Amino acid sequence: MILNDNQRRVIKALYLEMYFLLFAYAQNMLSDRSLAEEAVQDTFRIACVKADKLLFSPNPKGWLLNTLKNVIKNKVRSQVYLRNFLKLDENVIPGNSDALDIDFMYSDLTNSEDYKLLKKIALDKYSMLEAAKEIGISVEACKKRVQRAKKKLKKSFKKMV
Asked: Which helix (H) or strand (E) holds 36?
């Protein structure tokens, strides 16, 4: 993604003008400062990738706000998915769940390539296409490997409970 001078100038001006407003909105919606920061950064990353759409929008500030709303929805959806997938009850696990070392807890699985792939999808938020490209396999093969890893991980959860 290479921006021309005009795109760079407009996005920089929007960043300087809108950053704190977008951050306040995101923090209010997410109730987490670091997630809000990440959401606003993702919004401007998308703005850079889709600079033409942003610049040709009749309301670039509104375009940014709508993009932020979508980013927030995706972040919330990812968090809910991850919580549901892992079925972690914060009352059962002492301390901050962010501090959990998943690799340590499931060290018998961490050497598995399928587990590493699942971790990219679930925790690092890779899309199936991105993960498949990175390791050089088809998207269908990637989906199958993630499915196998989920099954294995769920089986190990059941043994713990």
From this structure: helix 33-49
Residues in the chain: 161
For 11, the enclosing helix (H) or strand (E) is: helix 5-30
Which DSSP letter does residue 57 get? S
Q: How far apart are CA 21 and CA 41, in angstroms?
A: 13
- CB-based contacts of 75, cutoff 8 Å, min separation 6: 30, 35, 38, 39
List the Cα angle 109/115/116 in 5-degree steps. Answer: 115
Q: Which amino acid is at 13?
A: A
The HSE-up count of residue 134 (CA atoms within 13 Å, CB side) is 12
Tokens of 54: 């942003």
pTM, rounded to two decimals: 0.54
Q: Which residues, 6 or more positions from 93, have their beta carbon under 8 angstroms from its beta carbon?
A: 100
Residue 30 contacts residue 76 (beta carbons within 8 Å)? yes
CB 46 within 8 A of CB 71: yes
Query: d(Cα 1, Cα 50) in Å, to the nearest integer?
Result: 9
CA dist 35 and 72 (Å) reads 9
pLDDT tens for 4-47 read 999 999 999 999 999 999 999 999 998 888 889 999 999 999 99
